[in-house]
Amino acid sequence: MDFTQLRNIISRYCVGEEIWVDSRTVYIGHKEPPPGAEAYIPQRYPDNRIVSSKYTFWNFIPKNLFEQFRRIANFYFLVIFLVQLIIDTPTSPVTSGLPLFFVITVTAIKQGYEDWLRHKADCSINKCPVDVVQQGKVVRTQSHKLRVGDIVVVREDETFPCDLILLSSSRYDGTCYVTTASLDGESSHKTYYAVQDTLAFRTEQEVDTLHATIECEQPQPDLYKFVGRINIYKDKEEPVARPLGAENLLLRGATLKNTQHIYAVAVYTGMETKMALNYQSKSQKRSAVEKSMNAFLIVYLFILISKAVINTVLKYAFQWSPDRDEPWYNHRTEIERQRHVVIRAFTDFLAFMVLFNYIIPVSMYVTVEMQKFLGSYFITWDEEMFDEELGEGAQVNTSDLNEELGQVEYVFTDKTGTLTENNMEFIECCVDGNVYIPHAICNGQILSAASSIDMIDSSPGGYRREHEDLFFRALCLCHTVQVKEEETVESIKRGIHQGRPTSFYISSSPDEVALVEGMKRLGYTYLRLKDNYMEILNKDDEIERFELLHVLNFDSVRRRMSVIVKSSSGEYLLFCKGADSSIFPRVVSGKVEQVKARVELNAVEGLRTLCVAYRRLSESDYQEACLHLNEAKLALQDREQRLAQAYDIIERDFVLLGATAVEDRLQEKAADTIESLHKAGMKVWVLTGDKMETAAATCYASKLFRRTTQILELTKKRTEEQSLHDVLFELNRTVLRQRSISGLSVDCLDFGLIIDGATLSAVLKANQEGAGCGNYREIFLDICRNCSAVLCCRMAPLQKAQIVKLIKASKEHPITLAVGDGANDVSMILEAHVGIGIMGKEGRQAARNSDYAIPKFKHLKKMLLVHGHFYYIRIAELVQYFFYKNVCFIFPQFLYQFFCGFSQQPLYDTAYLTLYNISFTSLPILLYSLVEQHVTMDTLKRDPSLYRDIAKNSLLRWPVFLYWTCLGLFDAVIFFFGAYFLFDNTTFTSNGQLMTTNTQMMFGNWTFGTLVFTVLVFTVTLKLALDTHHWTWINHFVIWGSLLFYVIFSLLWGGIIWPFLNYQRMYYVFMQMLSSGPAWLSIILLITVSLLPDVIKKVLCRALCPTAIERAQSSRPCLTVEPSTIFMLSQSSSRMSF
Amino acid sequence: MVKAEKEIANRPDNTAFTQQRLPAWQPMLSAGIVIPGFVLIGLAFIGIGVALFVTSRSIEVLEIDYTGEDKNSPCFKCSDQDVKNCVCNLEFSLDSLFEGPVFFYYGLSNYFQNYRKYAASRDDDQLSGDLDAFTSPSDSCSPFDLNGNDKPIVPCGAIANSMFNDTFVLYRVVNGVKKLVPLDGKGIAWWTDYNVKYRNPTVTPLKNAFNGTVKPISWPKPAYQLDTSDPANNGFINQDFLVWMRRAALPDFRKLYRRITEGEYEKGLPAGNYSLKIAYNYPVLSFHGTKKVVFSNVSWMGGKNEFLGIAYLVVGSLCVLMSIVMLIVYAKFKFPEDD
């Protein structure tokens, strides 16, 4: 099938006007041109090295440090650290320097390791062996050493190491077969041609004698476009120039098939190959959670600065009167007195910043990184995502995006190899309404599955028999399938008798292979085409020979193909097969009704159907047809058009024989997965390079389109009839009307959109030209938004990325996910927020460039609905909790400034300040964020609609953030003033002095701080305990363990005179506090009061407006009691959530 | 075979942890737990609150301000900075027995013992009896580390320098005769401060350790002469010094001065007239501070503290109230688990 024409059209749309910026001249075999040719200007080309790594050994440290300090948080901590070094601050530089150093080191190690892996992967590609012809000999070298101009030998099933111009092949006609599956997803074999003047070279020596140059355009990313010229210098003759086109260019990444070896010359190498140009530069993907985290961070930074400013201003207001500024008991040193007031104020401001800097927790970043890194192991460990066939489980390439998996709104999926197995299978055929299914064959006997179909009239046996014979012969003859050469007729025969499933057909259309294979299974085997005779082995084991007279090739406008053959009995027969819509109008007789019914039934099943018809030609008919055809073929002008006319005349008056059904087997559970994704509120788009009909059939099969789906077409065919403008507006109207009619009941009708690459680029291009013709892009997006499913066919790899980008940039900024398996999907995988690679048959480029790689499409369901959901709620809690606990931590310190004359006196001891985030409160939240399951995995899988609960970053929106912050403020106020009133109004004392009784001791400021701190640690830990829904032994261990650790640490810290400290201010403070009854009572009281509002809020929210998840949680106890009602209940709960 | 091995190698471990299927307790804040829980907590809190409140009520406190700002105050004459060695007498009477043991505090207000610079202005090495630190006090003590002649100050720093130095003598006036009330100054500081944290240098006599150093600028006597009556109560382990060195958390504070536990006052201060002789030394008016003396007795829960009792009562009632509100909510909006 000839796609080049269509491709050219697409490429014209994609790339726009071709621009000859420059051309390059390649000297084949690095030979200098003969004198007299243009001046020899050696051009410099990159070598054939592929680089995907970010760092080298030398630039790692500076570049990585630079990248890390570009992060706002790291930079902030660096500044704080420097401030602490420079000025006299309330806390020691160690308190911020140590954690910062820790964070930077951990991150650098992680990134270095990841880059090392990339280096290794690059290396294995670059070191892969390649055969090059040098001085008439084949020399084995490494891929990265290839240079432009090298002559390369590629053998069967090898992948081309760079972009090559075919010189000659082992086939005598100078052609070779190539599959570009890993480039554009088409697994069919394509034929590439050598230039006439070079195709005769057979050996290395001969090739080496070639003296020629190639002039071609500079590299550009369009896979289907190449313009060049080869100049061949022969002895003392004028050079012969031949044009070169895309049909001569073998692309890197494609694989040589069915050809022993080829000789070809390298024109584009390394990062200039079309495959590499189709890769997009890797940009650091950041998850939505990280973005909200940064937003929160900025809020907190603002709070921090305003706190520091308020305190500085108040300090100077407070110190206005000299007795407060410098009371007699607290004189300044001379140096301090001489300092200018502005400098003093600025220093004070910085000191306040340092004092409050813990509000932005450095440990949050460590914890988040650790959570992501460790958490991602649950994906790789997941046994359900392990594929037995591949022997591999899911892979995580970047752990930064775990939570993004829970936020996906748009799923862009490739078709071939992702949704489908990329494996055509013949399902059934029907002759006059009688269905034949290959599975029902026993010993070559066809058992008609007639019981499955209504026999309206039982035709006479002879008539039926005749049609049956013709039908099977038609399918055996009407195709362009080639037979692998090494298969002999005898071996084929033997294979059939032994029931060996041999696959020896090759064709540019996998459907045709499937059909011919299917015929073989039904007893009719196409053997070969020899000397224009097609040989068929029929089910009686006899060889029938038909003379092939004419092939009326397939084209996508006519959507059918025909052959004219002459049977051994001298009959002229025209067999035609094609899409039902193009056959039925031309049929004059046959059981149209029955066949039509069957075809429709099959189409709904998602099978790819073709109708088969024939026409008996008389001698005169045949002569006439020949005349038409030859005339058209010889025409110099409008050849295409005239051929079409000729075909139109010949292909008519058919007798309908029957129909076939071929299935591109969907991947296991693909439909179920898509259904779940739909239920989870995601929009699924299929982006494929395949043709529309095929893609649409797959969409139906995978339940992307349902029978009720109203299909909107935005294809080249339509835009040719109407202008793009009209079509767009019409579709938009349809959609809008429907929306206004349906009103509340949105589900009553859903739309599916089909758009092709050409139209898409027209839509996008129109926008660039200006607003004159209206904003097509917006209208298009508007239509898409109202469609539950969109199919984009005939997409070039970069177009896939364009679509993703378009949606990403639309005004809701939805989170996108791209899933694909081939190199053609790499650009979209890189573009989308989350890129998922399927470890497919078509190489590993997609898996390598993806963020996550899974063995099968069905694993996407668990990946998103379970892992994504878990990761999201985990990290959301992590982020909110971190901010909360640091508000609780630092706000009392802020309040304390009002009672210590704004002197930056820390409320807590240095050890507490440093360890609060590092050890007292870090492990419970880290472990929570690793193992929390607010509902069980099974519930999540069973009820995809729970995914909607967390959509749109719902747990990290501003109201939620505000709630947490207010809760933190409330708790902080309770802690501080609780302690304040206990200390202030009265003598808060202990009467249980150690050793003696009946004494009264005074508590100092460290006891005050320790009391607040104790309440703080207990409250924030218990708050997390309240939020924990899934108490494994780990949670128990960590939560109670860290509380115990706090107590033990405090006892130890205060129980010993630490020799390395120059102050002993905490000595026995904690013990003395615990020896006081009121301290115990107030700790209990303050913890209770701090936790009360959250408990009340939880209970009331659950009662008044429960979310779907909360309902699912509530129904959990019932489920465990009565497993049989699980399904019913989950259904009812999901219904209630709408 | 090779493939099978590879498969096994790649296959993830099927353990409960890796598959996230660890057995777990999945509690939920459901009606059945929360409402009874709230009622229970509420009742318990109310109980504690009542107990605390009643106890607190039974505690007696007597506070007398003696700053002398007011012209009618007996200490008015001393409030002038220029008057040295001023003594004033504070008269008060008790209507009934002030139950013992009675604790005698002094209180300061608007006094920031929690200034950062002030708080750091001490040398713990010195205070633990390290003689090297005697000759070269830590920088943190600055500007109270060296006197004008660059002689080291021991104990150095602002805290020590500003030690409270008013002294009190309490008399019971019986028939116009002043009868000395014995005050017990032992064990008013933390046991650990007295026995472990603060150490005098192991030099006898103590005075020799202080050779080459000077007393803090504001001190009338050097550290080794703080208590002339008891040689063991001198230097850094002087009880009053220890009490002072434990800085107060807030600007209005009181510190324990003495206990009244001995002899006939074991049961408390009997009703009658009392006279408190105050050696007024400590200047507070310059920073608008006040000074006071406080007599108080204690209970099992410490000093007088109505706040804690009231807070318990309020929180307890709130809990009960919330449980009622929740009950109403539950009745109105049926919970899913009630179905």
UniProtKB/TrEMBL annotation, chain A:
Its EC number is 7.6.2.1. The chain crosses the membrane at residues 69-87, 295-318, 349-368, 911-931, 961-983, 1003-1025, 1037-1061, 1067-1092. Its cofactor is Mg(2+). One of its GO terms (cellular component) is plasma membrane. Residues 42-96 form the P-type ATPase N-terminal domain. It catalyses: a 1,2-diacyl-sn-glycero-3-phospho-L-serine(out) + ATP + H2O = a 1,2-diacyl-sn-glycero-3-phospho-L-serine(in) + ADP + phosphate + H(+); a 1,2-diacyl-sn-glycero-3-phosphoethanolamine(out) + ATP + H2O = a 1,2-diacyl-sn-glycero-3-phosphoethanolamine(in) + ADP + phosphate + H(+); ATP + H2O + phospholipidSide 1 = ADP + phosphate + phospholipidSide 2. GO terms for molecular function: ATP binding; ATP hydrolysis activity; ATPase-coupled intramembrane lipid transporter activity; magnesium ion binding. It is found in: Cell membrane; Early endosome; Endoplasmic reticulum membrane; Membrane. Residues 847-1107 form the P-type ATPase C-terminal domain. The active site is at D414 (4-aspartylphosphate intermediate). ATP binds at D414, K415, T416, E512, F554, K577, R608, T688, G689, D690, R794, K800, N824, D825. Keywords: ATP-binding, Cell membrane, Endoplasmic reticulum, Endosome, Lipid transport, Magnesium, Membrane, Metal-binding, Nucleotide-binding, Phosphoprotein, Translocase, Transmembrane, Transmembrane helix, Transport. Its main location: membrane. The keyword Membrane applies. Residues 129-273 form the P-type ATPase A domain. Mg(2+) binds at D414, T416, D821, D825. It is a multi-pass membrane protein. GO terms for biological process: phospholipid translocation; positive regulation of myotube differentiation. PROSITE patterns: ATPASE_E1_E2 (PS00154). Belongs to the cation transport ATPase (P-type) (TC 3.A.3) family. Type IV subfamily. Component of a P4-ATPase flippase complex which consists of a catalytic alpha subunit ATP11A and an accessory beta subunit TMEM30A. This is Phospholipid-transporting ATPase. It comes from Eleginops maclovinus (Patagonian blennie). The lineage of its organism: Eukaryota, Metazoa, Chordata, Craniata, Vertebrata.
TrEMBL record, chain B:
One of its GO terms (biological process) is phospholipid translocation. It comes from the Eukaryota. The chain crosses the membrane at residues 33-54, 310-331. Keywords: Membrane, Transmembrane, Transmembrane helix. The keyword Transmembrane applies. GO terms for cellular component: endoplasmic reticulum; Golgi apparatus; plasma membrane. Its main location: membrane. It is found in: Membrane. Coiled coil: none annotated. Belongs to the CDC50/LEM3 family. This is Cell cycle control protein.
